[in-house]
Specification:
One of its GO terms (cellular component) is periplasmic space. The chain is an alpha/beta fold. The protein is built from 16 helices and ten strands. It folds into two domains: 232 residues, 3-Layer(aba) Sandwich (D-Maltodextrin-Binding Protein, domain 2); 99 residues, Periplasmic binding protein-like II (D-Maltodextrin-Binding Protein, domain 2, 3-Layer(aba) Sandwich). β6, α6 and β7 form a beta-alpha-beta unit. The protein is globular.
């Protein structure tokens, strides 16, 4: 069974099981003067996802009359299952999820309505610093990579192909090490290169065990890498709620493009108590410089097309899915105008 079928079948089965205990009906009603509750799940806890942490801590959601109940799913399949089973209202997860679910024939489609990140958030870490790095240097080397079929892995293989490399033929890609153990594995000698997310990349640099030589995000261009999505039925039944949510995220994006890294790091610190402030500042600065966060939340058609091209090249786009089927840009367009 190929990757997207495994993902979609797992999500569908999980949703069926969880539906037995899922909350039913419309729980997001408000009384006079009370904040409306919105249940938000994030795929993982990551500095990369600063927009909604900022919106919570800066009070942007409360300004819109929303009380955000945040949980972390620790996995795209888990986040999607929670959404499909009505355990959460909105999920922050990779936009490719909507395509996987749509290809499985879900009766209530998942629809992306606001963009949180616009580039891949991983960096290429080498054992030695390289002032004139070229992707051809991966030839004949080993790369500690990501899970097969995941967007980071699809991006990695796409970038390599764009630079004339044949992944797995010209090099070895190591995919049998769990995400949480990858940084330690690289530090102990596994792989010549490492596709690292933050703060792992900065920690390796600080410890003198690795050097960031390239950004996958800057090389691949813009795409709806991580987005806020909801079931189509939720968007139709809660349009005002979704608009308020999007307004708050847009304000957070504005902040991320104007605030200094030190300020942003202080705001999101409550979500990363185990990360040193110095590393937190370094990571925020790196994401700002790599243009990871969009200036607005609109998912445009060109970005969506870029994502589908990457999926198609990786063999994960089995059937074309139209932009209008899984993207609803009206909320972001209104938030942008404000």
């Amino acid at each position: 069974m190929n990757t997207w079928k495994k993902f979609a079948c797992g999500v569908t089965l999980g949703a069926m099981l969880f539906t037995l205990t899922a909350c039913g009906g419309d729980s997001n009603t408000t009384d006079d003067g009370k904040l409306e509750t919105v249940r938000l799940t994030e795929v993982i806890r990551s500095i990369f996802y600063a927009p909604h942490y900022v919106a919570i801590e800066k009070g942007y959601f409360k300004e819109q009359g929303l009380d955000i109940q945040l949980d972390t799913a620790w996995g795209g399949d888990k986040a999607t299952t929670r959404l499909l089973a009505n355990q959460d209202d909105i999920a922050l997860v990779g936009a490719e999820t909507t395509i996987f679910v749509q290809q499985q024939g879900a009766p209530d489609a998942l629809v992306s309505f606001a963009q949180a990140t616009q580039r891949d958030g991983s960096f290429l870490v080498a054992r030695q610093s390289a002032t004139n790095f070229d992707w051809s240097q991966l030839k004949g080397k080993s790369l500690l990579g990501s899970r097969a079929g995941s967007m980071p892995e699809m991006v990695s293989e796409y970038v390599q192909k764009q630079h004339g490399l044949k992944p797995f033929t010209d090099n070895q890609i190591i995919q049998n090490i769990a995400f949480d153990n990858q940084a330690a594995a690289f530090a102990s000698g596994t792989g010549d290169f490492f596709q690292a997310f933050e703060p792992a990349a900065s920690l390796l640099e600080k410890q003198g065990q690795g050097h960031v030589v390239a950004s996958f995000g800057q090389d691949i261009g813009t795409l709806p890498y991580t987005v806020f999505m909801a079931k189509s039925s939720y968007l139709k039944s809660h349009p005002e709620t979704v608009q308020k949510f999007t307004n708050a995220v847009q304000k957070a994006q504005d902040y991320l493009h104007t605030a200094k890294p030190e300020e942003v790091a202080s705001v999101i610190k409550p979500y990363f108590t185990d990360v040193d402030q110095e590393i937190l500042v370094r990571v925020v600065k790196r994401y700002q410089e790599s243009d990871a966060w969009p200036t607005n939340t609109v998912i445009d058609q060109q970005e969506f097309a870029n994502m589908k091209k990457i999926m198609q090249t990786a063999g994960e786009l089995k059937k074309d899915v139209a932009y209008e089927t899984v993207v609803e840009p009206s909320f972001s367009e209104k938030a942008k105008q404000k």
